[in-house]
Amino acid sequence: xxxxxxxxxxxxxxxxxxxxxxxxxxxxxxxxxxxxxxxxxxxxxxxxxxxxxxxxxxxxxxxxxxxxxxxxxxxxxxxxxxxxxxxxxxxxxxxxxxxxxxxxxxxxxxxxxxxxxxxxxxxxxxxxxxxxxxxxxxxxxxxxxxxxxxxxxxxxxxxxxxxxxxxxxxxxxxxxxxxxxxxxxxxxxxxxxxxxxxxxxxxxxxxxxxxxxxxxxxxxxxxxxxxxxxxxxxxxxxxxxxxxxxxxxxxxxxxxxxxxxxxxxxxxxxxxxxxxxxxxxxxxxxxxxxxxxx
Length: 294
Description:
Strand content: 5-15%
Number of helices: 12
Number of strands: 7
CATH topology: Rossmann fold
Low-confidence stretches: none
Mean pLDDT: 90
Radius of gyration: 18 Å
Helix content: 40-55%
């Protein structure tokens, strides 16, 4: 397949100031792409743009993935500023850590709205511009789309939904020359994962994510895999590649993963440690309540 050269193309990215968003922005800028940086904080996105080279190659906009009008305005202004939009990455995402029986319904609904509905809104706002240049839409999902952990029902449901959304939208847009992909990294270090590993319930469930099935991979490996996937206009991006078979055959491997990954009293112990708000740390709660960044 011919490489989709990113030099001179414009890429819009939601959640641009988060751990993954910031690293992706740096890597994409290094490929010669112009960047429309979309974030809840226009001040943070503007500062990020200055560090990446200034308004001729990178500019920040306020965008709330829970508000279609704000996304449409940001996409329209970005397309006008740069003259085009070629690639749009729906990267905003949040998490929570609590069981069905006790989670605050608002915490559950917020994750679904940011992670799943936010992707739909991002794609909807971007499509008229991306279609014009037969570009590419990418949503950051997760291996959680295929491996469904307890106490993260909103996260796993939203990420599985993103995978299905991308598959459906791809069928709608293929005759227009627009590519659609979903990225499915395993655990990697970001502020979101720092909240998971610091939370008592998260630590009980995942063991700190430093060994075994749930061991984190380096952030740069995830970034490299996603950028490579964009350059291939891939339908499915799995990081690390060794998990591709598990991603493509979720029904086959899920019982084995569940037996090996959640042994004995791991889940009941984690449930007993969970906070109804999704996080014990008020700072973590505030981040996931107000932000859409990883």
